[in-house]
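Need Endoribonuclease L-PSP family's 3D structure for a figure. Predict it.
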Amino acid sequence: MRFGAARSNACGAVHRSTIQPGILMAVTRHHVGPRLSEIAIHNGTVYLAGQIAEDTAQDIKGQTREVLAHVDRLLAEANSDKAHLLSVQIFISDMANFPGMNEVWDAWVAQGATPPRATVEAKLANPACLVEVVVVAAQRG
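Structure prediction for Endoribonuclease L-PSP family:
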């Protein structure tokens, strides 16, 4: 099928591809380093790199608060906020910390706009890090 052609699915609904050959959608990156960018924005969608606490002497609640403050700051820089979250992945080093992390999360997340979320136990790159958060969000307006 050629680009831009209409097609029908089994239910008869018509979908139209808006991709045209030779046209690339721009990707904007912020805080670009040799290994990763903290923010990538494409077609109104904001992708954040995994966020960890800088002060790893804190307990799970302190690290989670710090990480979510990083998320707030980066989303604001990308013209988004926690009310526009599309998906969140949370990695914690020990599931025993799940209740403490959730306590901070519940106080932070925008009620009525809670995103799809997965939380898994994982061995993080820095053993002192207790939580890492990966976010995908839509830009505002």
